[in-house]
């Protein structure tokens, strides 16, 4: 398989705020949507909606659903109290213990007398790009083809991935909200359908300075000088 040098990718990433797996959780009890929290050993999840507290603990063996009593203010956070379930949310950085993801809040849940601790709220930006992995959602405003696997990984001082056709890799450096990558090498294959088109759109985007943002729902957005974007979702 032949390898060709792509033009150096110049300029990326302005860190802002990163994310959970689905929709961005809202503040507890604000009526705007769900607030999610989770923990490990034993695994548990908690969803707070305007109407309910929905707790799933002990790797699914314990399920408690109670009416939302409303949040009480607590020191730097909120507290929910019911006879079977109480929840303390403290606004402060939290690690889930299973990955490098950092969350906005520390969450303590007491369910039928058993207390567990974990994290909740929006996912914060990664402290560094190294060790993170992403998948493409759209490139140039067009959703990526579902049958073409995509990825963008940062490992140590190298990045690699695929925008839907060829594999690429190369060195990168990140400073002053700008990531400079390359020269990158890529395999040289022709791909049928949308795979080649979306790859060409991605490389065209990356030939110039690209700013990045990490919305609270965990999406990474790369924006070129011409306003064109690539949207990625956090995988690890």
From TrEMBL:
Protein name listed in UniProt: TetR family transcriptional regulator
UniProt keywords, alphabetically: Signal
Listed Gene3D superfamilies: 2.40.128.270
Species this protein is from: Sphingopyxis macrogoltabida (Sphingomonas macrogoltabidus)
Top-level taxon in the UniProt lineage: Bacteria
Name of one Pfam family that matches: META
PROSITE patterns per the UniProt record, alphabetical: PROKAR_LIPOPROTEIN
Signal sequence extent: 1-21
Domain annotation DUF306: ranges: 127-229
């Amino acid at each position: 398989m032949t390898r060709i040098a792509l033009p150096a990718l110049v300029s990326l990433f302005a860190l802002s705020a990163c994310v959970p797996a689905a929709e961005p959780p809202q503040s507890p009890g604000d009526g705007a949507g769900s607030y999610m929290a989770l923990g490990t050993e034993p695994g548990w999840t908690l969803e707070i909606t305007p109407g309910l507290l929905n707790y799933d603990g002990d790797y699914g063996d314990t399920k408690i659903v109670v009416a939302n009593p409303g949040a009480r203010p607590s020191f730097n956070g909120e507290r929910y109290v019911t006879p079977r379930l109480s929840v303390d949310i403290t606004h402060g950085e939290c690690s889930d213990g299973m990955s490098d993801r950092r969350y906005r809040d520390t969450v303590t849940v007491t369910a039928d007398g058993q207390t567990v601790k974990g994290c909740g709220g929006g996912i914060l930006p990664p402290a560094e790009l190294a060790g993170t992995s992403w998948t493409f959602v759209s490139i140039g405003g067009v959703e990526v083809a579902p049958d073409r696997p995509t990825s963008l990984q940062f490992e140590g001082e190298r990045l690699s991935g695929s925008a839907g056709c060829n594999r690429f890799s190369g060195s990168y450096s990140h400073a002053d909200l700008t990531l400079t990558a390359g020269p990158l090498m890529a395999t040289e294959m022709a791909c049928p359908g949308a795979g080649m088109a979306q790859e060409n759109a991605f490389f065209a985007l990356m030939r110039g300075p690209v700013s990045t943002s990490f919305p609270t729902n965990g999406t990474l957005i790369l924006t070129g000088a011409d306003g064109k974007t690539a949207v990625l979702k956090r995988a690890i």
